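Troubleshooting: if your tokenizer reports a length mismatch, compare your output against this known-good record of 219 residues.
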Amino acid sequence: MPCNFAAVIFDMDGVLLDSSSIHHAAFLEVLRPLGIVEFDYAEQAGRKTFDAFQQLNGKYGWQLSNLQIGELAMAKSAAALKAMRESNPIFPGAHDLVQMLSSNLPLALASSGSRSSVESFLDINKLRHCFKSVLSSDDVANSKPDPEIYSKSCEALQLPPSRCVVIEDAVSGVISAKQAGTIVYCLATTTGSSTLLAAGATGCLARLDDIPSALGLHF
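Known-good structure output:
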């Protein structure tokens, strides 16, 4: 159980949004014309979309230019954003949990998603007022697993990382948060709990509703 923590930092996709299937489908939509019919989204979860395609470019030896990679990334992001705006796949209980926590603790949102997807999530669910800090992939130079986004979140909260708890679902996010010096709890929505614990998570939760008790919160 975390001791003496003062704030919670949420990842978005896979934590507050049940969006893994949407991202998987959007990647496949863009990858099929390149001959890829099977894709493991968990391997890319938590990364900037551009970085994911850059990694795939090397994996498959496509020798695509940065311009071409950027075009693929934009097409994937547009497809995913359209699907999420249409379905708003927020996890059951996520809205009430965020509202409840924000009444008692400062919260931050630190997502590898684009600014447009983060803004869409906040506006559709009317949760913008709940977060003291909101950062997207557009706000950092280095994406997860680099610690930049979580380090900046802690700075925005004006708290040392050791007093911030991060909720993550991806290996790259767990590594990012650990390297930033925060406490990390995971949800096994995108990746298996054993993999996330091996990456450095303090504990793995079965569902969002377990967060208050896991953190020792009694409101």
